[in-house]
Design brief:
Blueprint (H helix, E strand, L loop, with lengths): L1 E6 L4 H9 L4 E7 L5 H9 L3 E3 L5 H10 L4 E4 L8 H6 L4 E5 L11 H7 L4 E8 L9 E8 L6 H30 L1
Parallel strand pairs: 1-2, 1-4, 2-3, 4-5
Antiparallel strand pairs: 5-6, 6-7
Helix pairs in contact: 1-2, 1-6
Length: 181
């Protein structure tokens, strides 16, 4: 199975997919912020990466179609994707989000969980649809919120859960694609 990954940040989920899922071929990592950590990780892993501005989705589509990707993983892509990209890869774009959706869609999900006094937060992998963070949920992982947790400490705990959940989902997608062949 070939996947493309889209990143805006540090790239820890991207690197985790590559190192945890050797049977999955990451054919390209697209990043939209020139100074993001994800590009350094791609370079150190010897994987191709490409800087493309978020608004240039036609180019993103051409790259991923040309590489014949089976799935696109949004691993910290901090932009809303357009219907054009979604329609180019229907039910083939997945996203990881730092909340137990449908709670706390969009930005600042960790802060919202803390401000609401929740006892549990977590992360969700879901299919990307035109409605923000509203696609079908594939898997979720709960993370307890402890007394004294801060946005930073809870974000770190959620990121550890993401590092376990995202490879689980990619393995599951690989298994599903093998069954469909």
């Amino acid at each position: 199975m070939k996947i493309g990954v889209m990143c805006s940040g540090n790239g820890t989920n991207f690197e985790n997919i590559v190192t945890s899922c050797p049977e999955i071929e990451v054919v390209m990592m697209v990043y939209n912020k020139e100074d993001c950590g994800a590009v350094k990780r791609a370079n150190s892993l010897g994987l191709p990466s490409c800087h493309i501005k978020s608004k240039d989705e036609d180019l993103i589509i051409r790259y991923f179609k040309g590489l014949d990707v089976d799935y696109i993983v949004l691993a910290g892509w901090m932009r809303i994707v357009s219907p054009k990209l979604i329609n180019a890869f229907p039910r083939r774009i997945i996203n990881i989000h730092p909340s137990l959706l449908p709670k706390y869609k969009g930005l600042n999900a960790v802060e919202q969980a803390l401000d609401s006094g929740d006892e549990v937060s977590g992360c969700t992998v879901h299919y990307v649809t035109e409605e923000l963070d509203s696609g079908e949920i594939i898997y979720q992982s709960e993370v307890p919120i402890f007394e004294g947790d801060t946005v930073d400490s809870l974000q770190r705990a959620i990121q550890q859960a993401e590092h376990q959940l995202l490879p689980l989902v990619t393995h599951s997608l690989l298994h599903q694609s093998k069954l469909q062949q």
